[in-house]
Amino acid sequence: MANLLAEGYRRLFKGKRFYIVLAVVIAISVMFTLLYMAVNKLAGGMVMGEEDAPMIPADPLLFDNIGITPLLVGIAAGMLIVQDFRNNTIRNKIIIGHSRVKIYMANWIVSVTVMVIYMIAYLAVSILLGAIILGFEEFPSKAIFINLLHVFFIELAMTSLIVFLCNTMKNVGGFVLAITMHYIVDMFSLSLMLLNKHEKAQQIIREAVPSLQMSIIQQNYTETHANGVRMILFMVAITVVSTVAGALLFRKSDLK
């Protein structure tokens, strides 16, 4: 496993894609901060007395990347996995004695590392620029830290699904599906909620689907959700099931 991880990290950090996407993550944080600043200036100019303007603090910035991160992780980590299949690197790893389960888990660990780095980079830039340019209203607070932890589990579930799709489909189609998964699942789950009129069923869908959880957190980032623990458990379940299922499917798959 150590050799697989070392090789995975070497390929990740040696390539340009990781750093290009990292630059995009930082640019997105800067862009959102400047956008908030522009909106605040516009609001201040539209009222008599700038102190009366409805100013936007930096707090929402911390959660603006929730829907973007899976896409960026898919581009940086998902394509790395698919390239292993396209270049027959996976077969070479199996031939020299690495087990398929260890190969899958190494890909999962590398992908989660990418997710964590991108999350930290976005938050670090947002906190620094947000504090300087906009100022915080609620951060730091217990509720925001809990919701940031909640976001971690949402992103972990989404990253696990990306690894699952890329490893099971083994082609560019799996990569494309992985990076669009957030939007596809979002549309499908919203349609399912509209068709299903049972309030309890709608609540379960909202709490069990990662993309819908993202919306809940973004809309109520200053408050802890009443069913937050259950929502996190749903994300842990998705992470475990997708990872175990992916490893088992990859173990029996034909690589010809």
From TrEMBL:
Pfam families: ABC2_membrane_4. The chain crosses the membrane at residues 18-39, 61-82, 103-132, 144-165, 172-195, 231-250. Keywords: Membrane, Transmembrane, Transmembrane helix. It comes from the Bacteria. PANTHER family: INTEGRAL MEMBRANE PROTEIN-RELATED (PTHR37305), MEMBRANE PROTEIN (PTHR37305:SF1). This is ABC transporter permease. It comes from Ruminococcus flavefaciens 007c.
